[in-house]
Design a protein that fits this description.
alpha+beta, about 25% helix
Length: about 110
């Protein structure tokens, strides 16, 4: 596994760190206005999804590998609802370092 502090992209590094710390304020501060996301190919309401899949269920990301300059991850993701599963994550980051979209799904 890759230590989150060693992830290449600073915005993705901060995203993983915020998720793993359960830090909703840090997570939300990383998002660009109007940020979007999808899970298994379906667009979701980002705020509702993050609350359900991360913050109210103890979400945690263990990064197995990164690609695309650190904006693509393979993660062993776990939470108290679904247990652990291998997932793929892809991030779009604005020029000012905020995440405008992320996509996740089973890898």
């Amino acid at each position: 596994m890759i230590d989150p502090a060693k992830l290449t992209d600073p915005s993705v590094r901060a995203f993983v760190s915020a998720v793993n710390a359960g830090d909703r304020d840090a997570f939300e501060a990383l998002l660009a206005p109007g940020a979007t996301m999808s899970d298994d190919g379906s667009d979701r309401d980002l705020a509702e999804w993050a609350d359900r899949e991360i913050f109210s269920s103890g979400g945690h990301m263990s990064v197995a590998s990164e690609s695309d300059g650190g904006r693509g991850l393979i993660v062993d993701y776990r939470n108290n609802t679904w247990g652990e599963m291998r997932t793929a994550w892809r991030f779009d980051v604005t020029t000012d370092g905020r995440i405008s979209r992320f996509e996740t799904g089973q890898a």
